[in-house]
Each structure stands twice: as structure tokens, then as C-alpha cells.
Amino acid sequence: NAKHSGRGRFALFDASLDEEARASAVLEQELRDAASRGNFELYYQPLYDLRTRSFDMAEALIRWPHPSRGLLLPRHFMHLADRTGMVPTIGEWVIGEAVMRIAEFERSGQPLQVSINISPTHLERIDFISTVKSALTRWSVPPHLLQIEVTEEVALRDPELAADRLRRLSDLGVTIAIDDFGTGYSNLALLTALPISRLKIDKALLKDLTVKPEARVLVQTIISMANSLGLHTVAEGVETEAQIDLLSAMGCDLVQGFLTARPMKLKHLREMIGDSTRRRPRVNLTSAA
Ligand code: C2E
Ligand code: MG
Ligand code: MG
Ligand code: MG
């Protein structure tokens, strides 16, 4: 019958499929172990404020120090986490870790706002707000030192639920940013409906900024619109001084990219933030003044 002939046809590939399935089952188990122990690391990428000309905040970016594969980036394991329901567990670790570090910075007399990425499935959880609240309480952290980044996807899934969660976060005093703006639906109505403080312009738009006139118009339009709505803008993936000059002239507030600072270990962030002379970038940004 069809079932049998189907089996026969795939028999040739059974060995390699088996191996692939086994490898992915192993990775899933390893991720489960890491998630239950919080065996991750947060890297921090400082954001450069074009007005104050200093680094006043940083985005926390998750890394997984894998026992044999080295340091894994989110694109190597977050999709697996999503498929297997581990996103909220990992997200809870991220919240706890980031808030603890915010408290450390504050206590050392160098307050730093830290921004964390939250997946839609975690934001939608019934206990999401209480997780954030108890982390802030546990470490006595002023809520404004925490920022939560979500993509527009949250509003496409369940607009009412997303609006409720974000409103409650905002009521706590936590800042909210829309991540990767300009690539998805970029629904303008969304921006007025949600309690957002910052708009992060996706790095895909930045890539073309200095070469394609259309990209320039698009970025300028986003920045002007954000400004009129009272939102701050962050340009992601800034890699050249020419981009900084242009963004500065366009009224962009913050830049985040390899040019000004790469994602770094906590230890290096501490050195950079602790040393006020290093709080300014090493590259020559005088023209951005
Ligand atoms: P994202 O939130 O848009 O983060 C910015 C990404 O751009 C980071 O990649 C960062 O390393 C990279 N980047 C920064 N500056 C530059 C630049 O100048 N050029 C280029 N080409 N890239 C730059 P990363 O760390 O690999 O993270 C990728 C994505 O994974 C993040 O994008 C975010 O969506 C997700 N992610 C990271 N950490 C977490 C987390 O803790 N939880 C969740 N749910 N997602 C996370
Ligand atoms: Mg982000
Ligand atoms: Mg982004
Ligand atoms: Mg992204």
C-alpha cells in the first residue's frame, strides 16, 4: 500500500535523518538543561546618545555558552526555544539577570538603563507583569531603568492583550520600545495606541541609508513622525560615520551599532561605564555634534 511504498522511498535517507533527529533532540535537551539552570550569558551593547554624546543605556543580548559548540547567538537557539515552549523560562532568567545588574550599576553610582528583548509568547503569559514587578521589587530597582523591547508582532497577534500588557508595564514606570521598526507592517496607528517611548529603526534600513535615496526618505519620515508623536528614535546597526552624520542631521536621538560599541561582556561594560572618559566613543564623532 501507499504507506509501505512511502517508507521504502525514504529508506535511503533514514540513517542521515536519524542522525539529524538525534542531534536536534540532544540540542533540545541541552537547551532544556540550560534553561532550567539559567546557563546563559547576557552581552550588553551600549547605545550612544547623539545629544548628550555619551553612553547612557545598553541593550542586553542573550548568548548561550554551549558545552561543545562555543558561544551561541540567539539565531542559533531562540527558534528552538520558541518551538519547544522554553521562551518564557529563558525570558524569566533574562529579566532576573538584567534587573540584578541594573541594581549593581545603580549602587556603584553609575546608573544605566538596560533594555531587554521580550518575545510575544512571553509577554502574553498571565504571569508576565508579576515576573517583572517582583524582579524590580527584589532588587529595589527604579522601574525607569528597565526598558522592554517588543516587535510589532505582539500587536499583530492579539492587539488587546498586547495593549493591556504594555499599558501595565508602562504604569509600573518601565519604558517600552518597538524593535526592528520599518521592516514589518509598520502600522502607524499602533504607535499612538500603545504606550511607547522609543522606536528602534531596523538595521536593514540603515544599510541602505547612505546609498539609496528611498531609504533616506523612509528613515527621515520615520524619525520625523516619531518626533511629532513625542517618541525617541534609535538607529540600529550603525556602522559608519557617514550614517551618524546623516542620522544626527535627521534628528535621530540614539545610535546603536558596531561603530560606537559592540555587544560586550558585563565585565567590559563595567569598565566602560565606570571610566567616564571611556563613556565617550573612541571613534571621532565630532562632526556629529
Ligand atoms: P535585536 O533586538 O534587533 O538586537 C540587535 C542585533 O543587532 C544584535 O544581534 C546585535 O548584536 C546586532 N548588531 C548590533 N549592532 C550591529 C551592527 O552595527 N551591525 C550588525 N550587522 N549587527 C549589529 P544578536 O545579539 O545576534 O541578537 C539577534 C536578535 O535576537 C535580537 O535582535 C533579538 O531579536 C533577539 N534576542 C537577543 N537577545 C534576546 C533575549 O534575551 N530574548 C529574546 N526573546 N530575544 C533576544
Ligand atoms: Mg532588541
Ligand atoms: Mg532590532
Ligand atoms: Mg531583531
Automatic annotation (TrEMBL):
Keyword line: Membrane, Transmembrane, Transmembrane helix
Q: Does the keyword Mitochondrion apply?
A: no
> Is Cell membrane one of the keywords UniProt gives this record?
no
Start and end residues of each EAL domain:
24-277
Name of the molecule in the record: Bifunctional diguanylate cyclase/phosphodiesterase
User: What organism does the record attribute this protein to?
Assistant: Novosphingobium cyanobacteriorum
Q: What is the lineage of its organism?
A: Bacteria, Pseudomonadati, Pseudomonadota, Alphaproteobacteria, Sphingomonadales
State the covered range within the intact protein: 260 to 548 of 548
